[in-house]
């Protein structure tokens, strides 16, 4: 580990707040190797550090929750390889790290659409969540993408709407809602898909569908 990464980790540990860790745990955030540092502080620290791919890799390897969040904020998108994405996704053990990495870094790489589909099919809870978190992030951030790219996610959303694991079902629902909020045509397609999902004999699928229907029916363009 370099001197720079050691100094950053020391600075993070000085900000440790056990009360915050307890509060984060109540929201389903893994408390293991967690310091309880607010994201705004980490983003401010990331701006002070600047983009640095090698440093990001070192911080990630530390295993510290906040160091991994900081890593995704400072990494250089053009240097993120498929191999790195696979290594990091296997390390996901908390929904917030999963979502932040997908929204702040992975969705801007060269292969996010393919990865979203690949990971959605994987059985590991946070890998599958990452697949749907990527779908939601792309729906929010990729303003130039054609509708067909998002409609291609529909078979995955329908198939895995029955996954009863909390962190997965919420991500499936999130992806469906974000796609439906892009434009009127995708809203109509998402509503049709939600109606199909609601007919599935699954309590989880019905929750995914009903929650999406409630939000999308209220959406105006």
Q: How would you characterize the overall build of this protein?
A:
The protein is mainly α. The protein has two domains: 1-79, no CATH class; 94-221, Alpha Horseshoe (Leucine-rich Repeat Variant), CATH 1.25.10. It has helices at 3-14, 18-26, 39-49, 53-61, 65-74, 82-91, 95-104, 112-120, 125-141, 147-151, 154-159, 166-180, 184-198, 203-218. The longest helix is centred in the middle third of the chain and has 17 residues, at 125-141. The termini are far apart. The model has no long low-confidence stretch (mean pLDDT 96).
Q: Kindly estimate the percentage of residues that lie in beta strands according to DSSP.
A: under 5%
CATH class of the largest domain: Mainly Alpha
Reported by name, the CATH topology of the largest domain is Leucine-rich Repeat Variant
Number of strands: 0
Q: Taking all residues together, what is the mean pLDDT?
A: 96
Written as H for each helix and E for each strand, in order along the chain, the element string is: HHHHHHHHHHHHHH
Kindly name the structural category.
mainly alpha
What would you say the CATH architecture of the largest domain is? Answer: Alpha Horseshoe
Distance between the termini: 51 Å
Low-confidence regions? none
CATH superfamily of the largest domain: Leucine-rich Repeat Variant
Count of helices?
Answer: 14
Domains counted in the coordinates: how many?
2
Q: What is the oligomeric state here? A: single chain
Q: Output the radius of gyration.
A: 18 Å
- What gross morphology would you assign? globular
Largest sheet: none
Helix content: 55-70%
């Amino acid at each position: 580990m370099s001197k720079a990464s050691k100094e950053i980790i020391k600075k993070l540990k000085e900000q440790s707040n056990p009360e915050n860790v307890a509060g984060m745990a109540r929201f389903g955030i893994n408390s293991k190797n967690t310091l309880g540092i607010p994201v705004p502080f980490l983003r401010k620290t990331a701006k002070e550090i600047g983009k640095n791919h090698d440093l990001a890799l070192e911080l990630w390897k530390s295993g510290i929750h906040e160091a991994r969040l900081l890593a995704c904020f400072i990494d250089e998108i053009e240097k993120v390889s498929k191999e790195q994405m696979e290594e990091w996704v296997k390390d996901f053990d908390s929904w917030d790290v999963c979502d932040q990495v997908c929204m702040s870094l992975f969705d801007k790489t060269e292969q996010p659409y393919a990865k979203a589909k690949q990971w959605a099919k994987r059985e590991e809870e946070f890998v599958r969540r990452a697949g749907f978190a990527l779908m939601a992030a792309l729906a929010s951030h990729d303003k130039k993408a054609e509708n067909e790219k998002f409609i291609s996610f529909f078979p995955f959303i329908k198939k895995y709407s029955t996954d009863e694991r909390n962190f997965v079902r919420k991500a499936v629902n999130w992806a469906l809602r974000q796609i439906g909020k892009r434009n009127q045509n995708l809203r109509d397609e998402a509503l049709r898909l939600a109606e199909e999902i609601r007919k599935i004999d699954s309590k989880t699928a019905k929750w995914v569908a009903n929650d999406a229907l409630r939000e999308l029916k209220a959406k105006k363009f």
